[in-house]
Specification:
By secondary structure, this protein is of the alpha/beta class. Helix content is 47%, strand content 22%. Helix 2 links the parallel strand 4 and strand 5 (103-106).
């Protein structure tokens, strides 16, 4: 029997959340979908978080992914941007955890390295490589959806490796792995 699973990749953001889905059949990837949740028109940050949660739940209930790969926020100089990205990521993770779906975080450099062989690749280089590997006819105008797709493909490429990033299989695992931070 051929092993099949679906991986949902998410590039969290409070302006645009990109996502992509692949189906893994045996050792082959098949493209399912990629798209974006556009949040620019909403001023209230809590409305944006609610929409991220709802869209993630909708994707889960529609495609029934077996695993979620999510891009971890990178540590930039702007603390407010980092906080907003962390909240967006947390809400998407909460949606997956509420459905008991294992989640793995990947740093942006790790995703770029997995896709292009260069951890400093541009969004355009990542998108072009995905287009080639998955046989995509066209690329979207915004590349946030290809970033989400890249997270899913990175997860596929890293399958079976011992250290792929932080993984959570549910709320209990998340709390257990992060309780030291909470107690500080």
């Amino acid at each position: 029997m051929v092993n099949e699973k679906i991986i949902l990749g998410i590039d969290p953001g409070t302006t645009i959340m990109g996502f992509g889905l692949i189906k893994v059949v045996g050792k082959k990837m098949e493209f399912i979908q990629m798209n974006e949740l556009l949040l620019q028109k909403y001023n209230d940050p809590y409305t944006k978080l609610k929409l991220i949660f709802e869209r993630t739940i909708e994707l889960i209930d529609t495609y029934h992914p077996d695993e979620i790969a999510i891009e971890a926020p990178f540590f930039g100089k702007n603390v407010q941007s980092m906080l907003k990205l962390g909240r967006a990521q947390g809400v998407a993770m909460a949606a997956g955890l509420s459905r008991q779906i294992p989640i793995t975080e990947y740093l942006p450099k790790k995703i770029k390295m997995a896709i292009t062989g260069n951890g400093n690749a541009s969004k355009e280089q990542v998108a072009k490589m995905l287009q080639s590997v998955l046989g995509l006819k066209t690329l979207p105008k915004n590349l946030d959806s290809t970033d989400g797709l890249a997270a899913a493909v990175c997860h596929f490429y890293n399958e079976g490796r011992v250290e792929v990033g932080k993984s959570y299989t549910g709320w209990d695992a998340f709390v257990k792995q992060n309780e030291k931070r909470v107690k500080k």
